[in-house]
Amino acid sequence: xxxxxxxxxxxxxxxxxxxxxxxxxxxxxxxxxxxxxxxxxxxxxxxxxxxxxxxxxxxxxxxxxxxxxxxxxxxxxxxxxxxxxxxxxxxxxxxxxxxxxxxxxxxxxxxxxxxxxxxxxxxxxxxxxxxxxxxxxxxxxxxxxxxxxxxxxxxxxxxxxxxxxxxxxxxxxxxxxxxxxxxxxxxxxxxxxxxxxxxxxxxxxxxxxxxxxxxxxxxxxxxxxxxxxxxxxxxxxxxxxxxxxxxxxxxxxxxxxxxxxxxxxxxxxxxxxxxxxxxxxxxxxxxxxxxxxxxxxxxxxxxxxxxxxxxxxxxxxxxxxxxxxxxxxxxxxxxxxxxxxxxxxxxxxxxxxxxxxxxxxxxxxxxxxxxxxxxxxxxxxxxxxxxxxxxxxxxxxxxxxxxxxxxxxxxxxxxxxxxxxxxxxxxxxxxxxxxxxxxxxxxxxxxxxxxxxxxxxxxxxxxxxxxxxxxxxxxxxxxxxxxxxxxxxxxxxxxxxxxxxxxxxxxxxxxxxxxxxxxxxxxxxxxxxxxxxxxxxxxxxxxxxxxxxxxxxxxxxxxxxxxxxxxxxxxxxxxxxxxxxxxxxxxxxxxxxxxxxxxxxxxxxxxxxxxxxxxxxxxxxxxxxxxxxxxxxxxxxxxxxxxxxxxx
Length: 648
Description:
InterPro entries: GH3, GH3_C, GH3_M. Pfam families: GH3 (PF03321), GH3_C (PF23572), GH3_M (PF23571). Belongs to the IAA-amido conjugating enzyme family. There is one protein chain. By secondary structure, the protein is of the alpha+beta class. The chain has a domain of 158 residues. The protein has 23 helices and 21 strands. The strands form four sheets. Strands 9, 10, 11, 12, 13, 14, 15, 16 and 17 form a nine-stranded antiparallel sheet that branches. Helix 12 packs across helix 13 and helix 21 runs antiparallel to helix 22. The protein is globular, with a radius of gyration of 25 Å. The chain starts with a helix and ends in a 9-residue tail after the last helix.
């Protein structure tokens, strides 16, 4: 275990000694063209050191993935020896044993709710060794959008250093697959919410936000693959909108140097372009005058940090005005940032719904679906093929940052704790829920992510993120998950785009129990493709909405369709809401403490989402109840002739 940290600290200290500029300050004249910039970056005195550092991490990844069983046993023994005296482990009578089999036999698989009371004691300020021997230094908060309440995860210094190791591993695969990615700028539109103090005095914020404010980023060594267009201060602006405005200003002033454009999550990136559609006249005024709007940006340290980037450029302002005022925004990224080669953002799982709109903005620029598999519980995997299509993105699990176990998923449902396997026991093609044991006090804790094993890197499994564990919709015996919902909504969105040139902005779902029997309700927010200022779309013909309902229901599983035929579920209802409705969702989440960097709209609403349901009701502009029942598969209908196809 010591060699991991030692190797990281060596690279880190080298970077701190050799760093010659404050984080985020432009390293070249913003007027220098892309070709000149490439030469300058290649000749940078720290480039050789950076490449050598990248080689170290590549070699390290090769080494630890060759014998993952050995690495996993070493890590687990390290965790158990260090934390043997904690209150949590002592209740299972391990008696100091660090044996893998003993641990798996005596310590049960748990959910977060099992440890919530212990976490709450730490939050309240209790200093005893409850979950970890090392002191807890802060808490990482989950988004809370799935279950309506955030989960708090204790964090230790060692945990943060492990995340930093994973972070450093993300660079070499991109640089090898996308030569020259280190020779330009990254327009990274990210905002770090400030977090707040718990009762016990420790900070609480999102994992991504905290890490971006940590010493590993603030004191990062020279890294041309993370050469940002904005100063670091913009990440910590006074508000999310203030941050996005500054990112856009800085990114446009360096438009020819931008090679990558992205955000932590695709929700935020799509939101930034919606903001640009609204703000571009004001942005053009600032670009022409070389100033920063006092209305949009009021935080003093942010204005001071952005000031060195500003220059009066009427020609640029006129160009941006010309492009943004065009009727269609198809390809707006290529037009505004002509050297941009990829879009870099998380769009796996339910967020893959944003891929079509990103392709629209980017005119089919490749979309990198995150270089890292990270959660509030830890940074677990690295994307070794970042240019793969979004639907094929996968991650090699890093065996030295968490001890992994896997609960098999059979027929869409968990197969039981008794069948849990370790990292080397998974089978290619099978789906599992990830279970982790970490240095920060999680012991056999379910993460809630369902993954599919798609191959191996050396001897270490490579996984795809399939969905979150939670079932989104259920009325009877049916269980519809995020993946099925996504497939259905995506099919309906394609139909709307093909026939009416309407793009899917956001979506969610719920079960309406006011009918007997209950029925599924799908909410969709749609965007025009004509750069219109209108906040609503025209009334959609009922026949097209009926086609959408059919497309959605045909994507659902046989149990749902059978129950529809048996009339155990009433007809699907599709509800269209006005533009901006889901922005109110986000604002509600932010008011409750969710991080804009981490926010993901909930895909299934229930009893805990009464406020969100009120927002949807207020934004409703059109609804349609399906007039038909989805047909059963032919082979099923033949085998079950008593199940009649009933229109409702």
